Amino acid sequence: MTLAAYKEKVKELPLVSIFCSCFLSDPLKKQTYKYEDTVDLTWCAISDMEVIELNKRASGHSFEVILKPPSFDGIPEITATLPQKRDPSLEEIQKKLEAAEERRKYREAELRKHQAEKREHEREVILKAIEENNNFSKMAKEKLAQRMEVNKENREAHLAAMLERLQEKDKHAEEVRKNKEATR
After folding, report:
1. Which of 1, 63, 84, 109 has the fewest CB atoms inside 10 Å of its own CB, making it the most exposed?
2. Angle in degrees, CA 49, 50, 53, rounded to 5
3. Looking at the record, which segments are called Disordered (predicted)?
4. Would you say 41 and 22 are in contact if contact means Cβ atoms under 8 Å apart?
5. CB under 8 Å to 40, separation ≥6 — which residues?
6. Pseudo-torsion of CA 166, 167, 173, 174, nearest 10°?
């Protein structure tokens, strides 16, 4: 068996195949590096491995697989540089303070405006309630006066009717007395 045949044989073995597939990258399927990718161990291209035959026996072969250390050739170096925080200048601090003051004044103006609108609404509600109360009182007084007038008219009519009946009774009684005296 040749060295190439040993390499293929090693790749066919299940455990070694899995182990090698983690580190070996196929040159045809070489991945391209993208800046936004996370760290990926397949970036390192292990281009070769060394197989050394140890013993050749009738029962089988023994060999040693030596993987060369990974090389990061051709892969751009990732530099995790954070923007350096610089001390703010006096002008920037002043601008921030002025912006904060403007925001505070704007919030206060909005609050005052909201409170004024609320007070105006409350005043309108109170005025409307007073007006409705006055209208109700006026209507109630008018209805009461009208009922009192109707009651007064009814009472006067009733009294007039009673008086008329009494007068008729008196007339009738007088006639009966005259007739009685005349018959005597």
Report:
1. 84
2. 145
3. 164-184
4. yes
5. 31
6. 160
pLDDT tens track for 12-34: 665 555 555 555 555 445 555 45
| Residue spans per domain, the chain | 3-67
Beta bridge partners of 64: 52
Over residues 37-90, the pLDDT tens digits come to 444 444 444 456 666 777 676 677 776 777 766 666 655 566 656 667 788 899
Burial label for 46, CB within 10 Å (0-12, 13-18, 19+), is middle
What tokens does 13 get? 């073995």
* pTM, 2 dp: 0.38
Q: Among all chains, which residue has been given the structure tokens 């005043």?
A: 123
Rounded CA-CA distance 62/53 in Å is 6
Cβ within 8 Å of residue 127, ≥6 positions away: none
Task: Name the strand (E) or helix (H) holding 133.
Answer: helix 90-183
Q: How far apart are CA 161 and CA 154, in angstroms?
A: 10
Distances (CA, A) of 177 to 9, 167, 169: 160, 15, 12
Query: What is the C-alpha to C-alpha distance for residues 24 and 134, in angstroms, rounded to an integer?
Result: 96
